[in-house]
């Protein structure tokens, strides 16, 4: 292909191209021209290569024809798709016109029927009134008896005939629920249902039922709270209370199951349900246990009466446990596990009570009483360590009565109190020793013929007694007490040395003051050997 032919064809193509050309098209054309020039320069780089120009021209013509045919095929399929889409749009427009005509007809029909809605509303009001009148007529005998039934049930409650009172109460509640259900209409009906005015009317008429529930609950919990005392004489009221609690629990479960099974119909729970009286039963028992323990010598807890108070608590707990195990357990269903519940209540009360006691300013003997009771008496076979009780509940699962930190604080307080007492006793013993030095007679002689005084005996007996008492609590407390005693002994020996030095100075000033000076000096040496 010559340069003249190429330039002529380019000029002809430029004349056919519109003035406004897409930038992408220009960029593509430039890239194509560049690629063609690069290819041609690579193929025809030598003159002998021009002999194959015809072959290349023929091959490129065939490729161009193939591309044109494929482009025509693509454009043809695209045009066919556009034609099909236009046909679908024409069909949709026709259907929309038809739907529009139908909607216009429906609008005209609805306008005609709107006049009949008023008639239907009147009919609905008549139906509601009829349903109310039907409910009133069918329940008229019961409605007349409501007030007399309420009064009769109140008398039964006052006389503590609890089972009969609860039976009357259940009947009254059933009447109330039936009236409300009839006013509400059959389930799934298209009526308006129970209105708030009708519900309030029924609630007001049966208002005595709510008062009966409160009165019965008050008497019921009074019986449960005093069950530990009453059951020793007559367990019948307690048994009646438990039967009522079980009835109420069954009713709660029934209404909850009914509500779950009819959830789609939005069935409401009866007023005051669920009552959860079984949970309340155990709560009242726990409160009764706490109140009973607080009344046991509570006024004499702080001070010298603390040990007696703890002993009274022990006897009260074990006595009540005997009543619970042998009497109350026979009055309740087995799943109540009343002994376990009582043990939990006891333990929780004691945790709170002893936490309060530990915060008081206690003396050494009082601290010892608390530690001994918590660590030894409470877990012994005389209390919670009894095999029958261990089988019911492992007290360790409830945690310690006093935390480890609280026990350490109590032990430190005990050591400080004992230290103060030991210091005072040693001071008094030293004063007695100094007084003995001024006696006008020689000191005592032991079995070996050595002089001595009562000071070592007093000190050793005092330290041994404190260590023995502390060992009753724990070896750790004994070790603390011994360490404290050694520290106080060191202080005593320091004061004892100062006293001997002063005693010697007095003797040098006036040798005639104490003619047994040497004897008492030898006794002091013997005392130091004994104390060592």
List the helices and strands and how they pair.
Elements: H1 3-16, H2 23-43, H3 53-138, H4 140-158, H5 162-184, H6 196-205, H7 207-225, H8 227-230, H9 236-261, H10 277-294, H11 306-326, H12 338-358, H13 364-377, H14 387-392, H15 404-437, E1 444-445, E2 451-452, H16 455-471, H17 475-509, H18 517-531
Antiparallel strand pairs: 1-2
Overview in brief:
The chain is 76% helix and 1% strand.
Given helix and strand content, the structural type is mainly alpha
Strand count: 2
How many domains would you count in the coordinates? 5
| Main sheet makeup | 2 strands, antiparallel
Question: What are the segments in which pLDDT stays under 50 over at least 5 consecutive residues?
Answer: 1-19
N→C terminal distance: 132 Å
Strand content: under 5%
Number of continuous helical runs: 18
Spatially, the strands of the biggest sheet line up as 1-2
Radius of gyration: 53 Å
Helix fraction by DSSP (H/I, runs of at least 4): over 70%
Mean pLDDT: 82
Name the helix and strand elements from N-terminus to C-terminus, one letter apiece: HHHHHHHHHHHHHHHEEHHH
Q: What best-fitting shape do the alpha-carbon axes yield?
A: flat
């Amino acid at each position: 292909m010559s340069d003249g032919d190429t330039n002529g064809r380019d000029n002809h193509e430029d004349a056919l191209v519109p003035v406004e050309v897409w930038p992408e098209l220009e960029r593509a054309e430039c890239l194509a021209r560049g690629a063609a020039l690069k290819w041609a320069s690579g193929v025809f780089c030598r003159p002998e290569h021009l002999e194959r120009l015809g072959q290349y021209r023929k091959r490129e013509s065939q490729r161009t024809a193939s591309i044109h045919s494929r482009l025509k095929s693509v454009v043809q399929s695209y045009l066919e798709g556009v034609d099909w889409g236009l046909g679908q749009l024409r069909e949709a427009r026709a259907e929309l016109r038809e739907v529009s005509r139908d909607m216009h007809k429906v609008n005209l029909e609805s306008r005609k029927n709107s006049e009949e809605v008023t008639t239907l509303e009147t009919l609905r009001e008549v139906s509601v009134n009829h349903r109310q009148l039907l409910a009133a007529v069918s329940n008229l005998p019961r409605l007349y008896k409501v007030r007399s039934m309420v009064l009769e049930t109140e008398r039964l409650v006052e006389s503590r005939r609890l089972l009969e009172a609860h039976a009357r109460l259940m009947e009254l509640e059933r009447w109330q629920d039936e009236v409300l259900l009839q006013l509400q209409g059959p389930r799934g009906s298209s009526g308006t249902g129970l209105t708030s005015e009708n519900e309030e009317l029924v609630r007001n008429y049966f208002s005595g039922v709510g008062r009966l529930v409160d009165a019965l609950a008050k008497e019921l919990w009074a019986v449960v709270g005093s069950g530990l005392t009453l059951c020793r004489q007559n367990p019948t009221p307690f048994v009646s209370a438990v039967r009522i609690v079980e009835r109420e629990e069954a009713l709660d479960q029934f209404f909850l199951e009914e509500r779950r099974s009819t959830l789609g119909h939005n069935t409401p729970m009866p007023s005051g349900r669920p009552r959860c009286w079984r949970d309340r039963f155990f709560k009242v028992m726990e409160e009764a246990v706490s109140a009973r323990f607080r009344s046991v010598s509570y006024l004499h807890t702080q001070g010298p009466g603390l040990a007696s108070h703890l002993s009274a608590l022990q006897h009260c707990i074990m006595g009540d446990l005997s009543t619970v195990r042998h009497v109350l357990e026979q009055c309740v269903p087995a799943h109540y596990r009343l002994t376990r519940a009582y043990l939990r209540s006891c333990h929780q009360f004691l945790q709170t009570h002893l936490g309060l006691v530990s915060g008081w300013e206690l003396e050494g003997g009082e601290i010892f009483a608390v530690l001994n009771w918590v660590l030894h008496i409470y877990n012994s076979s005389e209390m919670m360590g009894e095999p029958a009780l261990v089988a019911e509940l492992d007290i360790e699962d409830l945690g310690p009565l006093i935390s480890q930190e609280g026990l350490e604080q109590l032990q430190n307080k005990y050591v400080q109190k004992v230290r103060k007492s030991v210091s005072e006793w040693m001071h008094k013993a030293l004063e007695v020793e100094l007084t003995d030095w001024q006696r006008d007679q020689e000191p005592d002689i032991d079995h070996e013929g050595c002089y001595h005084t009562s000071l070592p005996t007093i000190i050793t007996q005092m330290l041994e007694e404190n260590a023995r008492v502390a060992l009753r609590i724990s070896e750790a407390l004994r070790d603390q007490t011994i360490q404290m005693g050694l520290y106080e002994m060191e202080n005593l020996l320091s004061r004892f040395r100062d006293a001997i030095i002063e005693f010697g100075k007095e003797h040098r000033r006036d040798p005639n003051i104490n003619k047994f000076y040497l004897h008492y000096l030898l006794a002091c040496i013997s005392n130091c050997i004994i104390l060592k």
